[in-house]
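quick one, 301 residues, struct below
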Amino acid sequence: MPGLMLLDTPSLYFRAYYGVPESMTAPDGMPVNAVRGLIDMIATLVRANSPDEIVACMDADWRPAFRVAAIPSYKAHRVATGHEEEIPDTLSPQVPVIEQVLDAVGIARVGVEGYEADDVIGTYATRAPGEVEIVTGDRDLFQLVNDDQPCRVLYTIKGIRNLQVIDEAGVTSRYGIPGRAYADFATLRGDPSDGLPGVPGVGDKTAAALITRFGSLRAILDALDGGVTDGFPAGSRLKLGKARDYLAVAPAVVKVAGDAPLPDVAIARPTGARDPEALVTLADRYGLDGPLNRLLAVLAP
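---
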């Protein structure tokens, strides 16, 4: 499926960090497991999918102010100090190395101030004229699947070599909802991993039943306001009514932005290193000869 491949880079380097032993170190002993793992992931993805364009999407702001203003608990449990995200001590120093490697190879690396990587992905996906593949371990991005484009998610839950392809049918199969209704479904049930409370007492089954019956969160609320009783699972009308304040603000938090101000950068898949000298320096400094050679080999025409 040639086209545009969008990498949820933070999701991937976290997976690499936990999936590759910390015994993978640079000559000076610095762990480089996340760096090596991510490079090999990208090589595997390019080899298997041959995208025409590829973007490594980044978190310029992992906890954007507009989401926190709407729901203060958003990712609050993951704050280390101030506005900094709590991440492992041995991962933090690897992120700048990852960025340098991507730049030297020539893979577009895009983050937008005030937005998460998800929003960068959402904006590229919305604007893309053709096929899109999103590589992520984050279910939030299921809301972007669209068979008409087509746009699908390559879900890393079982590893980069055993990706689950999520299209509209995949969303329906997993959750019993219409294929493009994931954002409304997630709003109703909530997501503790992101600090989103959801509607108390409304879990997956009730959320799916409501979305399937009414089609959207907006339609559910309109039915609630209009006094409709048919189609509401027992007790759900009362639960929804008590959660109206949450439901008024949550969609703007859950919905992936499609209007982030993307920079004007070349996103064509590179066919060789953009900066060979810098890449050699990085390979020597961090002991990356093997993974970089594998990546360059699959990028070559």
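Residues 35 and 259 are 30 Å apart (CA to CA).
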